[in-house]
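pasting input
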Amino acid sequence: MGRFTPERFAFSGPVYYTPLYPEPPMHYRHSEGFSVVYETDEEPVLDLLPPEVEPADSPPVVLLRISRHAFSTFGPHHGLSTFVRVRLDGQIYNYVTYIWVDSEAAFAAGREVWGDAKKLANIDLRWDREEVIGTVERPVGKRLLTMTMAIQRRMRPEELPAGVPGATLKVIPSPRQGAPPAIAELNQIEFAITPEAGSDGQLEVYTGPASLSFDSPSQTTPIHRLAPRRILGGFYGSFLIDLGHGETLRRHE
Amino acid sequence: MNEPDRLRGLLTPDQFGYSMPVESPLFRPLPFYYRESRFLTVAYETDPEAARALLPDALELSLPATASLSLIDNSWTTLGPCHEALIGILARWQDQPVRYVPFFLVDAEVPFAAGREIWGIPKKYGRISLTRETDIIVGSAERPAGVRLATAMVAPETPLDPSGLGTTPAVYLKVIPAAGPVDRPEIAELVLSRTEYRVREAWRGQGSVELPAASTFDPWHRLPVRAIKDAFWLSYETSLLPPEVIHRYH
């Protein structure tokens, strides 16, 4: 008989010796992030939310962030996260909708542990003269979105969005044909995002006029449905991020 | 920003797509179709205790302990083109011969995610090549780029009758972690693949296998080569059918 017994299984596959990713917490350091906060239309948001969840604002508010993680336990990579502020059981969450990365381990761990519905994409965050610019392509050559901001001033700590937990819909298919998903659940994600301070002790987070455009629609990655109706603000900075375990809030049988 | 009167989401479970993101799924239900696939495999005798150490306790090792290194160029599939590299161990599930796969590399997003989430194939990304040089077909697998985990070679010598080639189904150990800090995975099961093969061309010849890198992260060298048993090169088409769960751990 084989000798590989369940108590020896690693946290993730391959379950021998060195799995693709370890058990949380995951850590990110010197994570450059550029966020745009905006209002969007209600109907496309409702189409993305399960029935337990409702938008927290009217019109719904979206935070779209492009990050360049110079160091993380998944290795250096880029990410795009799209959060809708929602309410579930009376609590406010950032509900994760479109979320893309360019790292294999971050891609698999996000999908399998928390239920981040990640896809791979070509993501860039760079400077062009006085403006910071973030772009996303999927597939390579098809520009889905562009966000820019000219930095005008440092942000005050009280101006930063309040930290709220994330929420995801985790769905893992059943191998059996026609069967319901093996896992279908709403999860809460705990993460701490801390702005880094400069040598003067002030936060390295800056703001200025920001823009966001969805450059071409895609039926396979329809993020353009969350088009901005009014930009509320943008901010850019350097952050420390610690991503912990989640908690299952609801199971769909 | 104003707080709305209640407006619940409209995405009900009966509308969930097959995979995440459920409103624009990364991959759709089986079957998946592969065309124009080329496959190099070399079977070799390995150390039985090393093989047992990797084999789930619900399976039995077939003796003499035999592993096979395979490198595949899937130039057209409904999941997109990809290369694959894997090692299988010949085993038995009850009375059925199976090929248990502990190591697997791929180089494309959708086969990577679908493989892990449907079958539990322990896929990682790797750099894989399958080329022909002079009379020898060479396959190699690296992870990360520059660290050579495996090289297989075959020199096709004898054409084979495709109808005489049997296929042994693969078995994978599917482990999906729970979101919360619990002490066991949300899914832990053995999954038996079901595949239809149509071999177009098959050749047998001399083969070789090297597992040069003693990588802590991808320890393919833990199935050492004792003797080469057989070597094939195939061209074929495949349909991947819904698999079967044959064992659950809890």
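fyi Chain A touches chain B through 77 residues (CB under 8 Å).
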